[in-house]
Amino acid sequence: MGLQQFEDRLERLVEGTLARPFRSNLQPVEIGRRLTREMDLHRRVGVHGLIAPNAFSVTLSAADVERFSNFLDALVRELAEAAREHARNEQYSFVGPIDVQILEGPELRPGRFEVVAEVIEGEDGLAPAELVLPGGGRVPIHNEPVMIGRMPECTVVLSDPNVSRRHAEVYRLDDAVVIRDLGSTNGIRVNGAPTTESYLRSGDTITVGSTTLLFEML
After folding, report:
1. Secondary structure (3-state) at 162
2. d(CA 174, CA 179)
3. I need a surface site. Which of 5, 61, 125, 180 has the fewest CB within 10 A?
4. d(CA 13, CA 19)
């Protein structure tokens, strides 16, 4: 399901323009399949379950890098999302943020590619946790609290008029992640329930004002 969603999203992104040139050549979804296969091959047993690679180097031929050049950044984002979806489906966890690099291999022929997957721990040594914004952007949660509000100094700046200047903060507490209301006018809700302070679980929705964020921890 994850790879099908990956393919569908990429096709919508480029409005179907890839169908013709990629029909007999390298297709982006082939890279996604190889990436998730490398996750399966190089997973390892951790203290709390299976740990999967989170850093990926994708080497393409010079010709394919050129052909993908107009949407290379989008391809990197979609490959990272394919890794997240595969991890959710297989109940893998990561020890660091997902990082996808597209490299050029002059010795590779068009249509050929290589994927190297590695487990690389994050700088803070904490399990990756992120807030997913309405537009799809992601804000990592490290040791410093993530401030949500309308002020420009906030980590997550929302133009929602129902959001207070300093509305809420999300912070680490040992191995957990907590959200706390900062005395906002309209309060916060986690999975639809009003709260002033709550521990977050992966998949929880956070509503501040009329804006909904998603919390993910892998």
Report:
1. coil
2. 14
3. 125
4. 12
* Amino acid (one-letter) located at 163: V
Identify whether the C-beta of residue 198 lies closer than 8 Å to the C-beta of residue 206: no
Q: Are 111 and 188 in contact (CB under 8 A)?
A: no
Of 14, 186, 202, the C-alpha closest to 92 is 202
Mean pLDDT over residues 155-180, rounded?
95
pLDDT tens digits, 189-205: 999 999 999 999 989 99
Question: Could you please report the per-residue DSSP string of 32-53?
Answer: HHHHHHHHHHT-EEETTEEE--
Closest CA to 61 of 96, 118, 93, 109: 109
For residues 188 and 204, the answer to whether their CB atoms sit within 8 Å is no
What is the distance between the alpha carbons of residues 173 and 199, in angstroms, rounded to a whole number? Answer: 9
- Assign 102 to helix, strand or coil: strand
Q: What is the pLDDT of residues 139-163, one digit of tens each?
A: 999 889 999 999 999 999 999 999 9
State the Cα–Cα distance between residues 51 and 73, nearest whole angstrom. Answer: 26
Residue holding tokens 């323009």? 17
What pTM value is reported for the model?
0.73
Task: Give the pLDDT of residue 217.
Answer: 85
User: Average pLDDT of 123-138?
Assistant: 86
Report residue 189: phi and psi, to 5°: -135, 140
For the record, the structure tokens of 189 come out as: 């809700």
